[in-house]
Amino acid sequence: MARILLVEDEGAIAQTVAFALRAEGFEAVHALTGREALRLIAGGTFDLALLDVGLPDIDGYALLRELRRGRDLPAIFLTARQAEAERVLGLELGADDYIAKPFSPRELVARVRAVLRRGRALQTSSGFEHDAEGHRVFFRGRLLDLTRYEYGVMAALLQRPGAILTRAQLMDRVWSDGSDSTDRTVDTHIKTLRAKLREIDAEADPIRTQRGLGYSLQVV
User: What are the structural domains of the chain?
Assistant: First the structure.
């Protein structure tokens, strides 16, 4: 059963969404504020986050960055802001989907399933298996011996297969302490990851460089 973190300060909306999720077999844990969400995620594991952008204590975009520090967490934004620029910003910050209010609970549940399904499909379609709770990544059935930062980069790429992550996005997600987080550092860790993947499969090259943009994980 997937565990969903719902961060929404409007009680009526939160109640409707939580009911719809639970009716479909999900476990929904509700937080009214960003601070409460951070407390909850520090004490447990979640499979996906549903985040209201307009929270009373912290902007939803900033909250997403905090929730993802050092962990793999798919996310969908819920917002009353329907402008194209807002949607683009949310997706550029790494959200997996963006739903404008008012929305159908059935559509929301369908999108939640789609995001979770993409993550599960990755395990069988690209040769990777990701144990997020155990902070382990397997490739071609073999455990990768990864450093803390190598794991963070790999987890970020595995979270959004096929999507291009910029160096800035990778630094923001992986180097939470801000130390040694430069473009060169990201490139160095990509290089060592590629070397470890090729130790398992000499022909493997799943991490693709998107010139002028960043990196993506090829899904076959």
Answer: 3-120 (3.40.50.2300), 126-217 (1.10.10.10)
- What distances in angstroms separate CA 184 from CA 137, 165, 168, 209, one per listed residue? 24, 15, 11, 14
CB atoms within 10 A of CB 86: 17
Distance, CA of 217 to CA of 131 (rounded, Å): 17
66-83: pLDDT as tens digits: 888 767 788 999 887 665
Q: Which amino acid is at 100?
A: A
Cβ neighbours around 137 below 10 Å, total: 24
* pLDDT 10s digits, 102-123: 899 999 999 999 888 876 666 5
Strands 128-131 and 136-139: antiparallel
Decide: residue 185, CB within 10 A, 0-12 exposed, 13-18 middle, 19+ buried.
Answer: middle
